[in-house]
Every structure is written in C-alpha cells, then in structure tokens.
Amino acid sequence: MRTTQAETKTISAEISAVGTISPLRQAVVSANMNGQIKEMRLLKDTLVRQGELIARIDTRDLQAQRAEAVAVLSEAKLNLQSLTKSAIPAAEAQNQKDLADANAAVTNARALVERRKILYEKGGIALKDLQDAQLVLTNAEDGLRLAQRSTNLRNSATNPLDTATANSKIQQAEQRIKTLDAQTSLAEVRAPLTGFVIEQTQFSGEYATSGGKLLTIADTGEIIVKANFADTVVPDVKVGDSAAVFPADLAGEQMSGKVSQISRSSDVQNRAVEIWVRLLNDAGRLRLNRA
After folding, report:
1. Residue 290 CB partners (closer than 8 Å, separation 6+)
2. Where are the domains positioned within the chain?
3. What is the DSSP secondary structure assignment for residue 191, as one 8-state letter?
4. pLDDT value at position 1?
5. Cα 205 to Cα 41, 164, 212, distances in angstroms
6. Are 247 and 286 in contact (CB under 8 A)?
7. Cβ proximity of 191 and 50 under 8 Å
8. ∠184-188-194 over CA atoms, to 5°?
9. Which architecture, in CATH terms, is 19-57+192-280?
10. 124-148, pLDDT tens digit by residue?
C-alpha cells in the first residue's frame, strides 16, 4: 500500500442564471428653475459628455426684471450724485437741454409710429418695420422719464438722511441685480457625467419646474449584471469570484467580470438570492436592460 500526503485544494463548480444589465452609475438631471424649456434637442439613446449643455430655460422674465433693476440703480446713483455735488449753472443748463431733447425724441418717435401704422395697414411695409418704430418710441419714452427724474432730483430739497437713503437704495439695487444674475445662471442645464441618455421626460417648448426631472443619463463604461440564483448554491459564492457573462445579443461572445455584491436577503417564495457581477464595458458592447 502506498500513501501520500493530503493536500487542501479548491474545488470549483459552475452555476448559471439569466441576468439583466444595469449601469454602475447614473444621474437624474433636473431643472434648477421654473420656466419654459427654450432649447432641448431629442437626446434619448445619444451620448452626452460631462459639462455638455443639454437644456436651456427661457429667462426673458428675469432679463426684464434685471433691466428694471439696472434702471433703479442708475436712478439711485444719479440721486446720490445730485446730493453730493452742488448744482452749477452749466450743469442745470445741460439738464434742461437733455429734457428738451428727450421730449423732442418722443414726439418724433410717436410721429414715426403713426406713419408706419398707416403704411402697414395699407400693406406698404412689413410688420417688422412697424415693430422697429415702436421699439424706438419705447426707448425714447424711457429716456424722457430718466431726464424728468434727473430734473426732479436737481430741483428737490435735501435733508440729512437723504445721502444714507440714496446709498441704501444703491446697495439694494446692486444686490437685486446679483440675485437675478445668479438665477439666470441656473437656466443652463449641463450633463453631470458622460454617458447615454436612457430616458427623456421633457422636451423643448414644455414648462419645467424647479427640481422636475428632465432626463436620466447612464454611464455604461462599467456595468452591473444582476441575476437571481437558488439559495442552495449561494453559500458557495463569494465577493470577488470570477464570473463569465454571455450576452444574449452577442452570440458566441464572452465577457469576464467579478462578483461585487451578494444580497443579504432572499426571495422567500422563489428561494432565490440576487447576485451582482461587475464588468468593464468600455466598447459599449452591452446595452442596458438587455437579458
């Protein structure tokens, strides 16, 4: 009889199951402000790069508010200037000239609008020509209001608190502009990671709400294959074990990965435990939600 020393070796066994593919990383992209989606192309199943612009929210209302805040700031600064500098005849004469010029500009602009209205109604000019004239009138009226305010400020009496009040209004207007600029910057929605858009829930022209989902981006460079195995074989499986994946839509091909997670709970009815296999998918050979 011949004897040999006993050795401890690992006995390997193969187990298999059908799995589904999921991305290792994905991100839900939401709007950062309320407003109509001004720009957003069809993105489903397309590759987007991190930082790429994927949507823009309409900011016309914010821009109008900013223009108003800028006007308030200009008026506040003019008020402070009139308080800190003594009026001189030359400055007063210039102020009166500015007021007269502004009145003349409004008169001329109104006459131009009336003429173009008649021509437009007769088909002699395009609508854009009439709109251009109306814009000229609006700007002229804004200039007249500013000139009137300047005249009123120069003619008004001051008191010891006027300078402090003027400074306070300047600070408020500047803060308002900063706030509006910050809100406007939220109008651009950019991709937080590089990946494929697997779901798009809103489109150009629709109304977006702050926090509302626009789309979902999945990074498919590294994926997870999830499969259910009988609870009787799971004790023999460990995290880090090698695994082979045979894609259903890539007949005859094999991809290698590692067991990355074993569920601590099991499906009591089916007596199955979910196991995750992690593998690289740099070439994009595997597509999501395929068995």
Report:
1. 20, 21, 247, 248, 249
2. 19-57+192-280, 60-185
3. -
4. 41
5. 10, 46, 15
6. yes
7. yes
8. 155
9. Beta Barrel (2.40)
10. 788 888 888 888 889 888 888 888 8
